[in-house]
Amino acid sequence: MRRRLRRGYAQWWFAYAMLVPVAIVMGLLVFYPLVRGILFSFTDANQYSIGNKFQPSSYNYIGLRNFRDILRSDEFRRVAGFTAVWTIVNVFFHFTIGLVLALALNRTLRFRGTYRMLLMVPWAVPSFISAFAWRFIFNNPYGFLDQLLQSIGWHDPPAFLGDPVWAKVSVIMTNVWLGVPFMMVALLGGLQAIDQDLLDAAEADGANAWQRFWNVTLPGLRPVAATVVLLGLIWTFNMFNVIYLITGGGPADATQIFATFAYQDAFVFKLYGQASAYGVIILSMLLVFGGFYRWAIARMGEETWA
User: Which domains does the chain have, with CATH numbers?
Assistant: First the structure.
C-alpha cells in the first residue's frame, strides 16, 4: 500500500497540488458551515443563547426535539405541500417548454441565431433583477399585467400578489420563465448529439414524425434529460430568491417553501437551532431523492444511440 501511494503521488502530484486550493475553499465555505449547521440542529440556539465575542454561548443540546417539533407541526405539512407543487410544476414546464423550443431551434430556421440569443435573455439576466421586474408586472393596481387586463375589459383583475392562489401562480410563472432557457440549451445540445443517420434510416423505413421523435429522439436524449431534470429538481426545490423577492413567502405564508421558511426562522425569528434542523431536513430529502432518482434512471438504462 505504501509503494502504491508513493507511485500514485509521483505520477499525480501536480493534480493533487491543483486540488489543494479547491479543497481548502470547499472546506471553509461548504463543509465547515455544513458541520456547524448539523451540530446546531441538535440545540436550542437562538439570538439570546448563541453568544458573541462579549458573551459566551449558553444554548443546550436537546437531541432530536427540533426535528420532532418540525415534523409534527401543521406549518411543516403546509410548506411541504406547496414545496412539492412548486418543484413538480416548475420542472414539468421547464422540461416541456424547453424541449419544444429545443426541437424548434434544432431545425434550419431563418434568424435562428437571433432566436437563440433572445431566448437566452431570461437566463443571462441576474435572477434578482428578473424577480423585481416580475414583481412590478404583477403589482396591483399599477403593474403592467393589471393595466393590460383592464384595457381589454377586465375591470377588476385579481390581486396577483395579494391573493394566496394567484400569488402561487405568479411565482411559478416567474420561475418557469427563468428556468426554461437552461433546459432548452441543455436539450438542444443533446439533440445535436443524436446521429442524424438514425433519423434518416427511420424515415426511410416509413416512420412518421411522431414515431421518429418517440423511438429515436427521446431515447437519444435520455442521458442529458436525466441529468438536467435532476439538477432542475434540486435547484427548484431550493429556489429562494424568486419567492423571497416577489412575495416574501406571503400572503399569510401561502408561498413559503422549505428554503424561505428556514430563512424566516433563522433571520426573522432568530431560531438558529430550528432553522438548522430545517436545513438538515432539506439536505436529507435531496440526498434521498437524488439517490433514488439515480437508481431509477440506472434501472431504466442510460444507453445512447451513438
Answer: 1-40 (no CATH), 79-300 (1.10.3720.10)
CB atoms within 10 A of CB 243: 27
**pLDDT for 196 beyond 90:** no
Residue pair 260/33 in contact (Cβ under 8 Å)? The answer is no
**Cell numbers of 304, please?**
445512447
The closest of 240, 260, 241 to 131, measured between CA atoms, is 241
Neighbours of 236 (CB within 10 A): 23
**Tell me: the pLDDT tens digits for 222-266?**
888 988 998 999 999 999 999 999 999 999 899 999 999 999 999
Cα angle vertex 184, ends 182, 187, to 5°? Answer: 105
pLDDT, position 301:
60
Cis? peptide before 251, omega within 30° of 0: yes
pLDDT score at 300: 65
**Least-confidence region, from 150-154, 169-173, 300-304:** 300-304
